[in-house]
Amino acid sequence: MRQVIQKLISLKQEGSYWDFKKEWYSSEKKSDLLHDIICMANNLDNRDAYIIIGIDEENKYKVSSVANDVNRKNTQMLVDFLRDKKFSGGIRPIVYVETISISNGEIDVIIVKNTFNTPYYLSEKYQGVFANNIYTRVMDTNTPKEKSADIHHVEYLWKKRFRLISTPLERVKYYLENSDDWIYSSPNVSTKKYYKYFPEFTIEHDYEDYRNGYEFYLFNQTDSNPSWCNINLSYHQTLLFSLGGASLDGGRYFTSTPFTDGISLTKNRNWDISFKYFIKDTIEYTIHKFYFNPDGDEASSSHRRFMECMLVFGSEDEKEMFKGYVLSVWKDHPLHSHDIWTPYIPEIKGLRTEVFKEQYRNVQILKNIFEEFKCNNL
Questions:
Q1: What is the mean pLDDT of residues 101-111?
Q2: How remote is the C-alpha of 77 from its chain's centroid?
Q3: 3-state secondary structure 166-218
Q4: How far is 131 from 87, CA to CA, in rounded Å?
Q5: Alpha-carbon distance 58 to 21, whole Å?
Q6: In this predicted model, what pLDDT tens digit does every residue of 185-225 receive, in sequence order?
Q7: Which candidate, 269, 265, 242, 246, places its Cα nearest to that of 256?
Q8: pLDDT of res. 186
């Protein structure tokens, strides 16, 4: 973030997704703060935007430290400020504040996250910010409060919401979030579906008869015999994405297969601890959720047993931070290993049962440590 902001400051001009302020907005300028946030949330560059506070444009863009600014706000204060504003559909911009020390002073950056929920606009007027006016930012200029953006910019923002400016892969990921809108391609085919509003998008899976390997999480199911497959996403005849899948517990539950990572407790490059995981908001996790249809006790039970063996991270960064945290606390891992039950793992020719038991036990310890990690990072 420091490098990004320093580069923007070095340009010595404002732009389509960044703005400079010498000081924080006073109580008399709350409408300006709201207006600026909405404009940045509706930026036309399809990216995060920045309101950089503590830069004096009239003094060669030098730092004007906000360390003692009486109007200074943190993330929670901004969230509270936006919460009581009447946004259409109750959907509000996602913002947070990050402080950067630079040139013997402090600057604050309001980071306005890029989302697909555009256009953001009010359903009820707030001071000078009008209801139903759609604001954006063109070059270095915000849409005036008393006006609405040009129609082609408004159209762009709506198209963004419905993924019509997105790539086919981004679109299909969005469509997969609504599993009820997918239909079997024929009554006799249970492995292929198409999206009913855009049937050129399909998802199908085919089983791999040659693959019969085992993973530790299979043994947490009532039926531990695996059925592996490939899952393919296509647009017309073009393959967009392919990943592994598995039919678990005798066909009671189907899912995409998880990622694998590990932790080395020494300088040895080999993993001492391995684990299976998903990352939220990835296409792999979206497909995992797509296939879970909790319409009966058997599927729900199989899903629960599967997730008992998984770690689910909010982002790749969170996963890497967690791995670092594990390294710092693993010496005390017996404190996190109480009441861990190991499922029955039968002897299978050519496989080492003790390895599966260790993997299962380790992931239960990691899940306990992960709960502690999340509490410490709230």
A1: 92
A2: 23
A3: CCHHHHHHHHHCCHHHEEEEECCEEEEEEECCEEEEEEEEEECCCCCCCCHHH
A4: 9
A5: 10
A6: 888 778 999 999 999 999 999 987 777 789 999 999 999 98
A7: 246
A8: 85
Q: What's at 163, amino acid-wise?
A: R
* Buried residues in 48-73 as b, exposed as e (16+ CB within 10 A): bbbbbbbbeeeeebebbebeebeebb
Nearest to 148 by CA among 175, 129, 126: 129
Q: What percent of the chain has pLDDT over 70?
A: 99
d(CA 31, CA 37): 10
Average pLDDT over residues 357-373: 94
Residues 6+ apart with CB under 8 A from 267: none
The stretch 154-180 carries a mean pLDDT of 95
Which amino acid makes up residue 298?
E
The beta strand positions in the chain, using DSSP E, are 18-21, 49-53, 55-56, 62-63, 95-102, 105-112, 137-138, 141-142, 182-186, 189-195, 198-207, 227-235, 238-248, 253-256, 259-263, 273-279, 311-313
Contact 137, 46 (CB under 8 A): no
pTM here is 0.81
Residue holding tokens 């509706």?
42
In angstroms, the CA 323 to CA 325 distance is: 5
Question: Which of 229, 224, 278 is closest to 248 using CA atoms?
Answer: 224
CATH 3.30.950.30 domain locations along the chain:
2-161
Burial letters 120-131, b for 16+ CB under 10 A, else e: bbbeeebeebbe
Count the Cβ atoms, other than its own, within 10 Å of residue 33.
22
- Contact present, 343 and 219 (Cβ < 8 Å): yes
Answer whether residue 233 shows pLDDT above 70: yes
DSSP labels for 24-81?
PPPGGGHHHHHHHHHHHHT-TTSS-EEEEESEEGGGTTEE---TT-TT---HHHHHHH
Our separate counts of H helices and E strands in the chain read: 9, 17
The class that CATH gives domain 2-161 is alpha beta
